Known about the structure:
Layout: H1 2-15, H2 17-29, H3 33-43, E1 60-63, E2 70-74, H4 76-87, H5 91-110
Helix pairs in contact: 1-2, 2-3
Amino acid sequence: xxxYRIRRSIERSKEDPVARRDYQRAHRLGVPVAMVxxxxxxxxxxxxxxxxxxxxxxxxxxxxxxxxxxxxxLCRFCNALEGxxxxxxxxxxxxxxxxxxARLLASAVDA
Length: 111
């Protein structure tokens, strides 16, 4: 019955939380568990963008929302940043221009 399945799922997650987390990630992304484990092994415990050391529970499995392709493992910050950059094409250049203008203004005031 449903209650038994829920209790058994909770028991299994306590027995092997890493395996359970890998399964949940794979299920959420619609990919095989082996693919999730492969990218986790490939990253060697580090964010593939910035190199920060990661605990297994803090890893984000990066994937393309259009194709479903799993790209790699990112820390939460890099994953959020990657998502923002993909949704806001051109925004990086706008922010860089703003920072440059602010620096020029600050240097003109200091002179």
